[in-house]
Amino acid sequence: MDRLAHRSGRGGNRPEAHRFTQSATLGSSTGDTYRSDQIVKSVIDMRSDVVTRPTDEMRRAMYEAEVGNDGSQEDPTAERLQALAAERLGKESAIFVTSGTQGNLLATLSQLEPGGVLIAAENSHIEYAERDGYKTITGATLESTRAERGVPNPSEIRGTLERTTGAQTRLIWLENTHNLGGGTAVSVEIMKSIADVAVENLVPVHVDGSRIFNAATYLGVDAKDLAAYADTVQFCLSKGLAAPIGSILAGPAETIDRARNLRQMIGGQMRQVGVIAAAGIVAIEKMTLRLQEDHDNAHALADGLVDISGIEIDPTSVQTNLLYCYVKPDFGDAAGVLARLRNAGVLAGGGGPDPQSIRFVTHYEITRADIDAALKDIETVLREIRPS
Ligand SMILES: Cc1ncc(COP(=O)(O)O)c(C=O)c1O
Questions:
Q1: 42 alpha carbon to ligand 1 midpoint, in Å?
Q2: What are the domain boundaries of the chain?
Q3: pLDDT tens, 218-260?
């Protein structure tokens, strides 16, 4: 019962944080289900940065947003967001879209013909999680390129380009940060070498920069410095930047105009969209400035996990807000540990295809006190599985 008691101090020292209590209707591996009228349980939710809820400032901006019909580009708040996003990425133009998946799909649709080839680092989000939109809607195929923790080697890209010279259109696809690679940032130098290969071959580059501001923060550069080596960039407002909805696709005006038409084709044209665009403006202006805190928390979590029996982790692999660790087989698999952790009030995700892998994601609703509390819970759970 104690472990289910409300955690004191959660989010208490941050004016913008919303209290993170949740009606305790969590099922668990042991079959317990707690009804909200029985107990209110506070959880530490590190499944993803998509769980972040809009800040108070965002909610106020949404309430006060000036709006118009975005279908005819008459929504002043959406226009302001798009101009701001384009400026932050050093691009001519930008368009507000519903999600990262939609922004990525529009990048393929606006730059590839049917039969085109998308050249992406292995294990990219578009390959394993975007429901084959590039294939079924764009009519493109995907060539997966070997990569080191999501960072492709420019010579591998060159090799793939040589193998695919017959294709009418091609698009080089980078993910920065790379999710399954471990939240790994692709450096300005690598981006530049890949851009050189792309220019030589007259092939455009798209960056799935869902977390490009995390990459820029880790690398100590401006997002513009990374975007400079891509034709188009998609970034999410709704992940670590905490807006409730939306992504941006930025690039040359001509490409973005094409994307605007295509967005209508796929049903992504919205109307008084300023009510959500307003949160996106706060996300860019304010939330991009605090990401180091999330990275520091991910490092603190990794440093603590090193000392927990049953967990394997290379703390030097942690760069940004994503952290992958592994359950030693003696302790069962990740699913078993995750179920017990859930019961203890700590939520994390399965870390991809490896059944031993767990992913933790830090974000603005996670404080250092949460990290300390989560580490205690993780240690307790693993001790319960296998007392030392
Ligand atoms: C690297 C990456 N790209 C694209 C997406 C898709 O974004 P959305 O969920 O907004 O469609 C995600 C979502 O987690 C992601 O991690």
A1: 26
A2: 3-45+290-385, 56-288
A3: 999 999 999 999 999 999 999 999 999 999 999 999 999 999 9
Ligand 1 pocket by C-beta < 6 Å: which residues?
Answer: 99-101, 104, 125, 175, 179, 208, 210, 236, 238, 247
| CATH for 56-288, options being 3.30.930.10, 3.40.50.720, 3.40.50.360, 3.40.640.10 | 3.40.640.10
Ligand 1 mean position to 102 CA, how many Å?
Answer: 9
- What is the reported pTM? 0.91
3.30.420.10, 3.30.565.10, 3.90.1150.10, 3.30.420.40: CATH of 3-45+290-385: 3.90.1150.10
Which ligand 1 atom is the nearest neighbour of the CA of 208? Answer: 3
pLDDT in tens, 113-125: 999 999 999 999 9
Calculate how far, in angstroms, residue 242's C-alpha sits from the geometric centre of ligand 1. Answer: 14
Give the residue, 362 or 28, on which the prediction is more confident: 362
Query: 47-51, 131-135, 286-290: which has the minimum mean pLDDT?
Result: 131-135
Cis omega (within 30 of 0) on the bond before 316? no
Report, as an integer, the average pLDDT of 325-334: 97
Establish whether domains 3-45+290-385 and 56-288 are of one fold. no
